[in-house]
Every structure is written in structure tokens, then in C-alpha cells.
């Protein structure tokens, strides 16, 4: 049996290996002897590889879909159906979990997988392996987490229980991807879900506010596998929420230090209140170089409305702890969450200038179905564009809605404030060229230099270059 797995990545800003698809592939290989899997990441594949993938014959194809990539995913399904009309095409990923039955309004999609995908897709694969003809609707009805067509309608069996032991999953099938072509760092995920329910985030809808974590030993084993198999690179941990457990964070650091890994690592998805000075210093000794914190706003009333369950004072204390330990802190901010005004944007800008943040990233709040922000727009404001979430990423600037207290004109003024403060790219040709050259230099550095240096040299050199980069960035702020 041959299975095709596709990640529609043409619109991805940062080209990173799709770890979700990697986990799905490795799980299928571990549970099914004699199957063959081909993977296509359209964001990284060249024309020859893409043509070769579509020219192959498959028994079933799964497409991992984000909201941003839905339109491209439909075009991929159309191409597959033109080549092989009877091919079962399965959509999975976060967009399916959010939109559920609406996704199936696209007739090219035969099945949808919602929630956690490994067990559900594996059961569907086994069903097609056991039945050379198309299985019956009764068979599909027994698969939890599967959306399927039945008598002209769409059927949705009950959701599947979440996998409790994430250590039981094999590492992602890195060997199926052109790892050397992904720029920058190795990517990892050490947990799934988040116990919080921020108004702008769909994670609680997908993972039901359940946080499950891999063990520190399992995490470090994957780090060692990556640097041994694919040459050393720094590690980026991309969890929804990495440090829910202070005990686990301590244990991970202890293993990095005890095994003398000497690999720099960074965190995306970090809770500000689950840190103190001792943990921050230990993180730095273990190799942590930078941490990204979702600050969103410096206004405490807004943080309450967003469901952040943290205060700006706690966030600032966390920034101080990390900065004092020698760790860069990136603050992530949003314009347009509930109760936002021009004055609250000014508060955030003032906070950034007075804080010890190494960098601040800004974006506009984008409402997605099944989130509190979507409901807020319906109740308190109105959309400035057609409320089609698959097209929101195309809007520039990304002003999707307005409210009586924060009009479109004020939102544009807020963007100007942030840009005038030097916290948004100006779009000038020089800066655009500078960013391109910086990315090109980074690719060359990691692909041809970093992994070939002695570990002790590359480790110290990486920290030195980060410190230098931070000083330059802060001097320009």
C-alpha cells in the first residue's frame, strides 16, 4: 500500500518541517508493515519533486491543512482527483478541527480527521488495506474522529480520546523530509495542548484545554537523535505552552546540563508566571538562548478580557529574570483584542520601551471560528471584509474587523504608532534587502559551517553572535 502525505506550505512565512505530518508518517510506519509513504511539502519542494509526487500512484492521500493553506489544499485535492478520480482524499489538521462539517462542503474532500490524527487516520488506512473495494459507511461510523459522507450528507462520529502517553509516539519521520533544505534550526514539539483559553486562540477547541507532555528523557533522546543523524543545529521548541510544569522544565534543564549536550535552544510558547531567578539561570546554563512570551498587551484589564490569567507585572518580572540570566526575551503583541483602544496600544509601546525586552513582534488580532474573539466580533463589532477565515491572511494590513470603541481609522493609526516606534518593518527596499541577506547568511551558516565546527566552538560562537545581534537590535529601537 502506498500513502501520500501533503503539507500545503507555499504561503508559509518561515519554512519549517511540518512536525504534525512527521508524527503521522512515523506512526503509520510503526503500525503497518509493508506500507510505503511519500511526503510532499509544497513550500520546500522544487518543480521536479512536485511533478514526481503527483505522477505517482497512491491508495490514499492525507493533506494536513491550516486555515491559511486551505485554498492551496483544495487545489492539491483537485489535481489529485484529476489524475485519479477514485483516490480517497483525507483532510486533517487544525482547520478541519475548527471548521468540522463546513470543510466537507468542498466536494473534492472524501474524509476529514478532526482532533488528534494519528489513531484515526491509522484506522482509516487499515480499513482500506483490509477491503480492496471501498469500505461501507457502517465501517466508517466506527472510527472516532472521522468525518465522512453518507447518503448525500455528512456524518460525524464521536471525538477520539486524546493520547495520554506522548512518549509512546515514535519521533517524527524526519528521514522522509529534505531536512537539509529547511533553514535555521531543528524544530521540536514537547507537549500538546494548553490548559488556558485565550480569546484569540483555537487551541482550546482542538485540544479541549488538555495539556499533555513528553517526559524530559524522551525530549533529550530526540535532541540527541537529531544532532547525531542530521548534524548539530540549535533547537527550536514550538509548543503551545512549554512550561506548564515547573518540575518538568527543571528536569529538562538538568538533563541538558548533565549530559553536556552543548546545543543552544529557544522556546516559543512560554508562561511568564512559571519562572523564577533560579530557573532562569538554570535555563541559561542548559543552553537556552531566547524565549518568546505572548504578552499581547500591557493593559491588565485587556489581559483579563483575553483570558491570559497573568498580569503585566508578572510578565515584566519574568522578563527581568530571563534578561538577568543572559536570555533574550521576545515579546509578542497584538492590536485589536477586546477592549483595545489607541490608548492601550500606547501603553504597550511605552511598556516595550521601558522593559528589557530584546525584541517586540506585533500583529493584528485575527478572529477565527470557535474562538472567543470570533464571538466578540459578532456581538460587539462587525467585519470589514467577507468573514471567510481562509482569506484573512490575504488582507494587508490585516484589519479584519472594527468595533465602536476602536474604529478602522483608529486601528490604522495604531499601526502607524507601532511602525513609527520602530517596531514594525517599514517595507523599504533597503530593509527588505537587509532581511533577505540576513536569511541567506543564516542558511549558509547553518548548512555549511555550524554543524562542521567542534561542538564547544559552535556553542560559544552561537551565544556570542546572539549577544552581538541583540545589542545591534536594541541600539536601533
Radius of gyration: 23 Å
**How many domains, in number, for the residues?**
3
CATH H level of the largest domain: which superfamily? Aldolase class I
Helix content: 40-55%
Subunit arrangement of the protein: single chain
Strand content: 15-25%
Mean pLDDT: 91
How would you classify the helix and strand content by structural class?
alpha/beta
Q: Name the poorly predicted regions.
A: none
Q: Which of globular, elongated, flat, extended, rod-shaped describes the shape?
A: globular
Q: What is the CATH architecture assignment of the largest domain?
A: Alpha-Beta Barrel
CATH class annotation of the largest domain: Alpha Beta
The DSSP helix count reads 17
Record field, number of beta strands: 17
Span of the ends, CA to CA: 56 Å
CATH topology call of the largest domain: TIM Barrel
Note the main sheet.
Answer: 7 strands, mixed
Give an overview of the whole structure.
With 477 residues, the chain is α/β, with parallel strands linked by helices. It has three domains: 2-155, Rossmann fold, CATH 3.40.50.2300; 183-427, TIM Barrel; 434-476, no CATH class. Helices cover 42% and strands 16% of the residues. The chain has helices spanning 19-31, 47-55, 70-83, 94-99, 118-130, 137-141, 203-207, 216-229, 246-258, 277-286, 300-306, 312-324, 342-354, 372-380, 408-420, 429-449, 455-476, and strands at 2-7, 36-41, 60-64, 89-92, 111-113, 146-150, 153-155, 186-188, 191-192, 212-213, 235-238, 265-268, 288-296, 328-335, 359-364, 382-383, 401-402. A seven-stranded mixed β-sheet has the order 2-1-3-4-5-6-7, with helices on both faces. Helix 1 packs across helix 5 (118-130), helix 8 packs across helix 9 (246-258) and helix 9 (246-258) packs parallel to helix 10. The longest helix is centred in the last third of the chain and has 22 residues, at 455-476. It is globular and about 65 Å long. The protein starts with a strand and ends with a helix. The mean pLDDT is 91.
Amino acid at each position: 500500500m502506498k500513502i501520500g502525505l501533503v503539507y500545503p506550505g507555499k504561503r508559509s512565512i518561515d519554512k519549517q518541517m511540518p512536525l504534525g505530518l512527521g508524527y503521522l508518517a512515523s506512526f503509520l510506519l510503526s503500525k503497518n508493515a509493508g506500507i510505503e509513504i511519500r511526503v510532499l511539502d509544497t513550500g520546500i519542494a522544487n518543480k521536479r519533486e512536485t511533478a514526481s509526487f503527483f505522477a505517482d500512484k497512491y491508495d490514499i492521500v492525507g493533506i494536513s491543512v491550516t486555515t491559511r493553506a486551505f485554498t492551496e489544499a483544495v487545489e492539491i485535492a483537485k489535481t489529485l482527483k484529476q489524475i485519479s478520480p477514485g483516490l480517497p482524499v483525507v483532510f486533517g489538521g487544525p482547520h478541519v478541527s475548527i471548521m468540522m462539517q463546513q470543510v466537507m462542503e468542498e466536494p473534492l474532500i472524501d474524509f476529514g480527521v478532526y482532533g488528534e490524527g494519528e489513531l484515526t487516520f491509522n484506522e482509516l488506512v487499515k480499513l482500506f488495506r483490509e477491503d480492496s473495494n471501498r469500505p461501507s459507511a457502517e465501517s466508517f461510523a466506527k472510527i472516532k474522529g472521522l468525518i465522512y459522507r453518507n447518503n448525500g450528507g455528512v456524518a460525524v462520529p464521536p471525538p477520539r480520546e486524546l493520547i495520554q502517553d506522548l512518549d509512546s509516539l515514535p519521533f517524527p519521520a524526519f528521514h522522509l523530509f529534505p531536512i537539509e533544505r529547511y533553514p535555521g534550526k531543528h524544530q521540536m514539539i514537547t507537549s500538546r495542548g494548553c490548559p488556558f483559553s485565550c480569546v484569540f486562540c483555537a487551541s482550546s477547541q482542538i485540544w479541549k484545554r488538555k495539556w499533555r507532555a513528553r517526559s524530559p528523557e524522551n525530549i533529550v533522546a530526540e535532541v540527541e537523535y537529531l544532532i547525531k543523524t542530521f548534524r548539530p543545529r540549535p533547537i527550536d521548541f514550538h509548543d503551545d505552552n512549554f512550561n506548564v510544569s515547573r518540575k518538568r522544565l527543571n528536569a529538562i534543564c538538568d538533563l541538558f546540563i548533565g549530559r553536556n549536550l552543548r546545543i543552544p535552544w529557544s522556546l516559543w510558547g512560554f508562561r511568564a508566571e512559571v519562572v523564577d531567578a533560579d530557573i532562569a539561570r538554570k535555563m541559561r546554563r542548559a543552553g537556552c538562548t531566547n524565549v518568546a512570551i505572548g504578552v499581547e498587551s500591557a493593559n491588565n484589564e485587556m489581559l483579563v478580557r483575553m483570558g491570559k490569567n497573568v498580569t503585566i507585572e508578572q510578565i515584566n518580572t519574568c522578563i527581568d529574570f530571563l534578561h538577568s540570566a543572559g536570555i533574550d526575551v521576545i515579546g509578542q503583541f497584538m492590536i485589536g483584542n477586546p477592549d483595545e483602544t489607541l490608548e492601550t496600544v500606547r501603553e504597550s509601546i511605552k511598556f516595550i520601551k521601558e522593559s528589557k525586552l530584546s525584541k517586540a513582534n506585533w500583529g493584528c488580532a485575527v478572529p477565527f471560528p470557535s474562538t472567543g474573539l470570533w464571538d466578540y466580533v459578532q456581538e460587539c463589532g462587525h467585519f470589514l471584509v467577507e468573514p471567510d477565515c481562509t482569506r484573512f491572511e490575504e488582507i494587508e494590513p490585516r484589519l479584519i474587523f472594527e468595533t465602536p470603541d476602536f474604529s478602522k481609522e483608529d486601528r490604522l493609526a495604531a499601526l502607524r504608532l507601532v511602525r513609527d516606534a520602530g517596531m514594525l518593518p517599514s517595507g523599504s527596499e533597503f530593509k527588505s534587502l537587509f532581511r533577505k541577506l540576513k536569511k541567506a547568511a543564516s542558511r549558509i551558516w547553518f548548512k555549511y559551517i555550524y554543524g562542521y565546527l567542534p561542538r564547544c566552538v559552535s556553542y560559544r560562537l552561537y551565544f556570542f553572535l546572539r549577544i552581538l545581534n541583540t545589542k545591534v537590535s536594541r541600539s536601533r529601537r
